[in-house]
Amino acid sequence: MQAGTASLVTTMDRLASGAFKADFPILQQQVGNKPLVYLDSGASSQKPQVVIDAMTKYYCHDHSNVHRGVHTLSQRATHAYEQARQKVADFINAPSTDDVVFVRGTTEAINLVANSYGASQLQAGDEVLITALEHHANIVPWQMVCERIGARLRVLPINDCGELRLDQLDALLSSRTRIVAVAHISNALGTVNPVAQIVERAHALGVVVLVDGAQSIPHAKIDVQALDCDFFCFSGHKVYGPTGIGVLYGRQSLLQQMPPWQGGGDMIRVVTFEKTTYADPPLRFEAGTPDIAEAIGLGAALDYVSAIGLDKIAAHEKALLEYATAQLSSVPGLRIIGTAAHKAAVVSFLLKGIHPHDLGTILDAEGVAIRAGHHCAMPVMQFFSIPATARASFGLYNTMTDIDALVAALHKARKLFGL
Ligand code: PMP
Q1: Is residue 121 scored above 50 in pLDDT?
Q2: All domains of the chain in start order, with CATH
Q3: 0.90 exceeded by the pTM?
Q4: Sequential DSSP letters for 331-371
């Protein structure tokens, strides 16, 4: 056996056995006197000790403000912050750190693009194309800018499996389309969208594409150059990093054209009362003191994920999804919402006779944490004519035993309801 194969087997075995749970202090607790089974990583993943340690070390030894100081601590803080930017660039294969803007999260990244690129490029009568399975973060900012400018928001529909109706893409992409904004993976349904194909078809018409990578960043190797997207955004907290930090990757030629969207310190070149000139990207878009510790924590999270290997994490989660789909399908009255051929790490479902919110509460008493609600994707719920779903979502630390615990808790819930 070659060394590479041996290490692949070992890591896959460790993923399957849940050995990585030991890296996550929060997972060592009991909820409702039962071992915590965390199946809500789609909303936010937990943090390994190395991320917590990186942030603590920074605050204990290196903290000062970045970019402006000559003293040792400021230099250390600046170095660590900019090193985190390099780690992000490497992780998503961005051509340069200049293409990586630190923001608070996916929501802020999309608002930045809508308010800077969108507001400066769109004209009345232009169109922005989104899809029917977007998170509110990739709907509302576009709606707001379209309303302001008199542009039109158009929506690529989905089919009953929760897949994009690509047969309608050419009809919806018109000479008036300026921007396509699409989720890489749907948070409500788990559908993996063919974004590279959408980029190709949009680019053929000269249309710029933003990919919302909030749900793909922890589950798939991202290569922004291979995807050829113009913008890609994600949140640190979904990829085992801290809250309060996220990334906007932008094609450098576009970032260069874009006006700042917030003014303040760090984003300027020269300020006089008559006129201010702005810094180059990425600093042009990072007004004020950034989330320094959070950026460093994100860098540590990306190192952690890279050391395990996204290919192995993806393979493990695929096995979990297949097992969960089979096991859940055997529960009487359970209906899976979202049955796309290509899915990742999310199962949304309804259990006949029990409202998803009640289900969430009953499962919590069994130590099983799932999410119940509209998942900030109300139009998806409207499409399926349902108010909410229960959703289990997986991370690298989950195991088939976690899914068994979910299924056992569902059977218990049915009994409680006399079903
Ligand atoms: N897009 C998608 C697909 C998401 O799943 C989420 C988070 N649920 C967001 C955007 C928004 O991310 P954040 O709240 O971290 O800004």
Answers
A1: yes
A2: 11-40+309-416 (3.90.1150.10), 52-306 (3.40.640.10)
A3: yes
A4: STTEEEE---SSB-SEEEEEETTB-HHHHHHHHHHTTEE-E
